[in-house]
């Protein structure tokens, strides 16, 4: 339920919202909760949502493209970070 959602948001280091208008609460408030708990916030959307100002990082376009591009970039960054540790 909602308790589990808020618990997950509190523990998140990154919060990614994909394809949301930002109109419907409580979901529209999740980004704010994530920021309060120190998560890096990312909006992947066709166009800016009603809560776009809450996001630190924003990428706009078709989900079939922006999600793929973002995840590929994220995975590359994680691989590079892991290589530096060894």
UniProtKB/TrEMBL annotation:
Classification via SUPFAM superfamilies: DHS-like NAD/FAD-binding domain
Keyword annotations from UniProtKB, A to Z: NAD
Record-given protein name: NAD-dependent deacetylase
Organism encoding this protein: Providencia burhodogranariea DSM 19968
InterPro entries in UniProt: DHS-like_NAD/FAD-binding_dom, Ssirtuin_cat_dom
Positions of the Deacetylase sirtuin-type domain: 1-86
């Amino acid at each position: 339920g909602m308790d589990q959602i808020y618990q997950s948001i509190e523990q998140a280091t990154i919060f990614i919202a994909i394809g949301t208008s930002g109109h419907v609460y409580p979901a529209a408030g999740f980004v704010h909760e994530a920021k309060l708990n120190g998560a890096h916030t990312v909006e992947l959307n066709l166009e800016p949502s009603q809560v776009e100002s809450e996001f630190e990082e924003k990428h706009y376009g078709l989900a079939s493209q922006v999600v793929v591009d973002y995840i590929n970039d994220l995975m590359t960054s994680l691989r590079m970070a892991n290589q530096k540790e060894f």
